Protein 1
Amino acid sequence: MALAQDVQHFVREPDWTWYILAYFFFAGLSGGSYAIATLFRLRGERSDEPAARLGYYVSFLTLLVCPVMLILDLGQPLRFWHMMWNTTPDGVGLNFKYWSPMSVGVWALLVFGIFATVSFAEALVRDQRLRLPLAQRAVRLLEGTAGTLFIGVGALFGLFIAGYTGVLLAVSNQPVWSDTWTLGGLFLASGLSGSAALLMFLVRYRPAAAASTGPLVISERFYALLELALIVIFALTLIPAGALGAAFGFPWILLWLVVFAGLVPGIGGLLTARLAVTDQGGTAPAGSSVATAVRTPLRTAVAVPGLILLGVLALRATIIFSIQ
Amino acid sequence: MAQITAGQAYGFFTDTSVCIGCKACEVACKEWNELPGNEPAFGDGYDNTGSLDSQNWRHVQFIDNVPDETSSTGQGKAWLMMSDVCKHCQHASCMDVCPTGAIIRTEFDSVFIQPDVCNGCRNCIAACPYNVIAQDEHKGVAQKCTLCYDRLQGGMEPACSKACPTESIQFGPVEELQQAARQRVTDLHEQGVTQARLYGEDSSIYGGLNAFFLLMDEPEAYNLPNQANAVLPQRNNLGGYLGALGTAVLAVFGGLIALRRRREPVADGPAGAPDDAPAEAAPETGAGED
């Protein structure tokens, strides 16, 4: 293990700021929502189908923001396609570097976009909001094994999109980012937590999906616990590199407080109710937990998921900005 | 200088023991490459350039080691001066991470950023361990020393080495420069200058630097990572992806537990709709039943 005084960084910061923060945030929500929706459809009950469709809607809509943010961040936005096509005179052809997370991520985003778009359209057709005969015929192709396989692979890409952004930061020579292996997992756990929170909030506006509130609440607790564990490991990995102060010092500690506040509903629920949403062990909302979003006042139903989502944003902000 | 031929590796040997800090290299570089430069910043030293960046492809570092109370001569250590430049690494971190293929290795074995291919993603800036590359705010692309690629193609040596009055910057075939550097450090050691050492002339630093240095102190004193810290960004690929994979497995497992819990007896019955919720547009059915 490297000693603190042995880890040297003389690198310049890349000036990845607000556009990248927004991309990381929405990529986490898009990939996380798709994965949760797929879990509902493949492993849930019939009553979870409305929540699954809601997840596919959220995944597609949040994904729309991602390429816009990425392109706007470029110094030459009109050359965004150079990420995929090499224009070097002697080397014209497709660009793909498996050892560069940015290169892998561009392709993964493109492929995931296809899955998210098809699942979005499929949800529209099944909800009878899209009635084109051609679309209805196409949806029939996604029934049975083909459909299971399709959304299963899509969920894998969704999980990748939600987490690879942390690996992208780590594959650099920047202090903090390159001193830890935890960022990929941390961003993934946080993205899933935020996705569950966003769906908990949106379920309020889709009563037919209310039966899925319980699983959303319980899974959010798992994701929050996972995130907390990874934050602890993240801090531990920074100690040998002497980078703990850079990541957690003032003023970044204030953003970390927001991150921890966002974990309170999930961790608190786990401590008080463990895996039960109600005292009786069922999942029907009752009482004061997040799970009762459907029956709680709008103010509470907005505040708790809002706090969790703010924590998701703050986590990415403090990691991106603390070294720049 | 012998004829410059494509297919041979060329580079710089920068001997900091004879650098006088005149900055002729900086001026020549700016003149030839038409770099407007930045506004000079005057501090309490002689360095008003600051650092290598998109406008400064050569930067003379002035490292002040003058003791508060002079008790003896500095032995060349009171002021350390070094004309810093892109190292044109054999294992280049910038090339490693560049997603567009804009960073290439030329026929002269130098590392070159193609300005018409780069799209300004700045991944190379995050990766370069020497703080060499920066984004040109006007052109929107990453820039650094080209080893005067255009001059080499025309059979001319780079502008900085041409202008250096003390031959602190020597240009030539890398193998010849390595031999000269080893002889130079041997001579210095024989003269009692034992602190002289070479940096990057062998493969221990990023597989070898085509622009390497004779230093008069530890590499860290010149903002150069030592051998233990000269590491490639891709070292974190495996750990990063495995960490994410482990998290994904645990997360899916957690999701499955959450769904399984719901199959247990429900105490209060299905949840009702809020008063302010809009009516659904269509009935909900399972995916396989539409």
Protein 2
Amino acid sequence: MPDFTDNLKPASPGGPEILAEERRQSDVPVGELAQHLFPHHDFLGRQQRILHVLGQDPLFSKAKQMNLSRPERYQLGLARAKMLRRLADQHGWDAEDQSMSQYLCDDVSPYMVHYTMFPTTVREQGDEKQRAYWMPKIQAGEVVGCYAQTELGHGSNVRGLECQARWDPKTQEFELHSPTLTASKWWNGTLGRTANHAIVVAQLLLPKSPGSTEYANHGPHPFIVQIRDMKTHKPLTGIAVGDIGPKYGYAPMDNGYMLFDHFRIPHSAMLSNYSRVDPNTCTYSRPANPAVVYGSLTAVRASIIMHARLVMARAVTIAVRYTSIRRQFQDRDNNDKSAPELSVLDYPTVQIRILPLLATAFALHYTGAAMQALYANTRAQIDKGDFSKLAVLHAQSSGLKSLCTELAANSIETCRRAMGGHGFGGGSGFIQLNNDYLSKPTVEGDNWMITQQTASYLIKRMSSAVANKGKSQDEVEQTCRDWLSNEHNSNISPLSIFDSDEQLVQAFHRRSRDLTYRAYVEREVKKRSWNSLLIQLRKVSHAESQSILVTNFHIALNDSKSSPSPALKGHLQTLFRLFAYYTMDAEARDFVKANAVSDEDLDMLPGKIQELMAQIRPHAVKLVDSWMIPDFLLDSALGRSDGKVYEDLFHRAHRLNPLNEITFNPYYKSDEIVMGQGSDELKKIMAKL
Amino acid sequence: MSTPQWVRALKPGSPQGSELLEQERSNSNVNVDALSHFLFTKEGIARKQRVLKVLQSEKVFDKSQNYFAGRIDRFETALARAKKLRQLAVRNGWTQDDRLTANELISEPGPYGLHESMFLITLRDQGNAEQHEKFLRPAEEYKYIGCYAQTELGHGSNVRGLETTATWNADDKTFTIHSPTLTASKWWIGSLGRTANHAVVMAQLIVNGKSLGPHPFVIQIRDMKTHEPLENIHVGDIGPKFGYNTMDNGFLLFNNFKVPHISMLARFSSVDPKTNKYSRPSSPSLIYGTLTWVRSTIVMQAGGVLARGVTIATRYCAVRRQFQDRDAPEWEKGENQVLNYTTVQIRLLPLLATTFALHFTGKGMMALYAASQKKMSQDVGKVGAPERGPGPEETHSGSDLLADLHATSCGLKSLASYTAVEGLEVCRRACGGHGYSSFSGIGPWYADYLPTATWEGDNYMLTQQVARYLLKSARSVLKGNEATNDTTAILSNFLSRQDTGAAFDILGNDSELVAAFAWRAAFLTFEALKHRDEQKKPWNSLLVDFYRLSRAHSQYMVVKNFYETLQASPDSSDGLDPETLGLMHKLFRLYALHTLEAEASEFYTSSAVTVRQIQLARTNAVMKLLEELRPHAVRLVDSWGFPDWQLDSSLGRYDGKVYEDMFHRASELNPLNRVTVDPYPDSPTLFKKNEASALKSKL
């Protein structure tokens, strides 16, 4: 319905004018930078092509989804998941196209686990026969599967799982059983309402000999199990399964629970590529090499980091655009009282929250790319059974996953708050992003827990380096030896971090080795208990990850293959230094203790950081433009590329808001809730409670 | 879907959560009741129990479906609850404190929220007698239901930038209220979207073509019968948000809408209808007084808000077990309680200490506020009397208690709400994967609390006010003026000892620990002054320094209030037994040393402490405190006395039945499980059996 608001314009200067001016006065080569960031697999072309398809279907419109209840969100998610699959068939999308369509749809799919962990596990853990039987059914969408490992009482510690798979030599079956309530599978995506099959990880119990009633536990193993009827989709007898209820985010995903009551499955259910049970002798043969599992886990973590950088870029894109447009207060030092209000991004208190995150998105990018490249390069060695490189990569990947997802999760919230009040609103584009992404620091290994893996690895290598016998086992040990012979010395002079980027990188390295060594002394020399060292170990892991991030950033800038144009390189170098200085400033004391940086230089850091931010400020809008995040994905009034912030906020509130279609009765003496409906509405509400 | 018998019979793996919590409680001798009394007084606790009983007996307050419903259902339920609450308040003759307690227990923002707070307060404070009669009385009877419309789409903290105008028409003695642009739309206004029929609207007053700044107007916006918007008023709800979805935050636009002369709230400033002359506000300080009070409550609430998260996380981490201790002997087979991990302790126990620190600080501020109000009424005769002159920021900074409190309250509000927000997320993550479930009770609570970090002044913007005040005080001290309040006292002390230096015994003496915080704040004040006055640095380039300065000063205030509350305890009637008091002192030290360690470089640069001391604080003192406090953690959170009904959390249940409750909610209360799905991509059917209404119409 047209009304007087249709003719209103925002106060001048408008967002579009401001963004046009921001873009005019910066020399950042957006096209070149975009190519630099996305050089592989025609990422940008693909983004355009898929976006065009999704943009045409109203099912993918996000306009009202925030108003829906949980069951409605799941229903919408399922409808979208089906549609994406049908579109893939129709347009002949390849795997990359499909993952692009998921990324742009930007809503978790109830099929997600069916596309990821489920087939990956069958492929990697199933033997040839199992693969041949299951994979075609999975690809056809007949078998819809999930991966059920975590339990109500048990997460990261897989050995603590309670669900049992007991071999019955008489009937030649396994009996799946949940002895307690805490044995219930829990959190497993796609399980709650969608899947008809599940990979169930259970403790394998075998009779000590074929006739024995005594059982031995061989640890957790994967089984593929049908859980629902293929026609009615009802749970099979002996299985209780359902959705675990609403979460902080991930509304369309049916994370589930599942319990087994002496449920029988055939011998062929146990995935047997690496470990198997001989049905006749009840003997168990061991996995050939558990390191194979690390391989895919490492690849998953590299892709988590690549995803984290896009999430950060997305948050920063919104933040930079809106804070350029948003004005508040005049400059106190400006004597002209009629001067326009300052752009919020001109405030150093706003810059210090946003611009280091912009730099961090680049830092994550180069490390994620380096990990993917390294993984691809070591694949050949892995296939030959040489896992030495992989071990290093795996150990580093734990710490990096922890640090990078935490940086990304925190960046969303930091950017959201820098928006002022509008950051809390549905039009900010931060709400669902925050809700969905916040699961990351606790999934695939809790961030605090997995830093132990990185630290433990580093301490081991340092121990060998101290023992100094024979050749170094790997490059990390070599760097420990180098540090011990050259830098482990209280007389060594601090590095000149402002004169040379190489020395800046070296400072991070020296600090990381110093922390590794200190942890080594505490644990191996002073024999302190592991538990009392956990906090320190986390620092060790973070220091190593920060050193890796800085190193990869620096290498990428000086890599002759991808050499950026001089104009671009200048900007990237500024971002590099901002990331390094900012990270250093937050951890300053470590750098002093390691003799890596002088007190005088550390005192100068805050000033240097502010200078760098002032250099980046005029280019901020174009730097975020280069990440090429489409408006469709941003779904943000504040972050629109055309700057029509206020028009869009108003449009969403006024035209797209179903609450405004209802007139309520506000007077407390009346039990009527909706005007003109008497007390019926109250009865309906009470019925739901 | 009915739950099969074999599922009902299942128990969680041993040991049971209830046993673990029982054991925790028997391992500690903290006197929970005494500590509760010390925090809330006996009357406060009795009130909570009395009101809770009433609420629990009304079905409309049942919380079991809160986490599942969509926006519209949530709002409707919230409106039904607001009405019932008002009916109960009238029927039971509830006092203001009773009503606040009820709101706390229900723990969701309600559609009457802004009517009951800002609307009534503004009418009372800024209206004259005639306006009290015309507006306040029907408002108190809930015939007029109102809101407070200040913020606009394009304008927040900077009130002077508001675009809505109120132009005086000399010919017919009316004001024309108008929104000249889209950014002039009122925005974010609580209770406005669907509920209110009146609004206090802040608009730029224009008389004779002259703009006189923002002033409040009372305006009817909806029809009293049909509740439809009046003509030339456009009003509605702004849509779903991060949290606060039970509140109808609204937008409001005027198209040359005329209101009578009486609409302008005229206690302090008015337009004479005969002469068309405008007379100025006499005392803006009254408004500062209200703001100061509001900020003190935010500080105190922040303690309780955080305590909810800490209660849930602490209890759950005592029940949850993961991995065996690497160094544990062979015979100790079971998994370790997560609360035994130092990486968990270092996150939760300092936050536990923080809850008390913030609570006592808020209490201290409110006492100071009451004292300054009393003093002012003695000094001048009447609060806000015209002869009192300009507001506190314009008076001599060193001479006024309220000025001191007002300026410092900005910083404390910023620090406290920031700390609570950050802390809640830390608690949520400390719960591991289950923290992400709504049933943890932390996520939804966090989402509703979040806006506190940006309202009543953005936390970063506010810190400028503190810095400005501290600089002024420092200039006054440099001139040789005598110290008249705490701020000038610590600045003078710093000046007098600046050259002899300070070696505070932070590890051995609690009062020296407080002094170290004062020293650091004073040091940063004079540093900032040097940058501004001697080096003439632009204000804008110093904002980050100012933020740090404000933070340092606020942390000093918190440490000081915590310390002084404990010092005063033996003399108070609610005083603590020596053992519990001893534990509280440990919590004090943990808060102070943990903060000191996190801000180590500032303490070190200001020469308040040596690097060696910081190192000892981290490696020895803090770790030792964690170990000493660990056995008492559960009882300490118990003393906050949150009823399970209020927490609405599986993980934080008092009885430790974490897993039973998680399972019950998922399996029995979850409406999604009443739906059977068709999962196959090629079939267009979504739900084979579908109790939900058609989705299409809602998209």
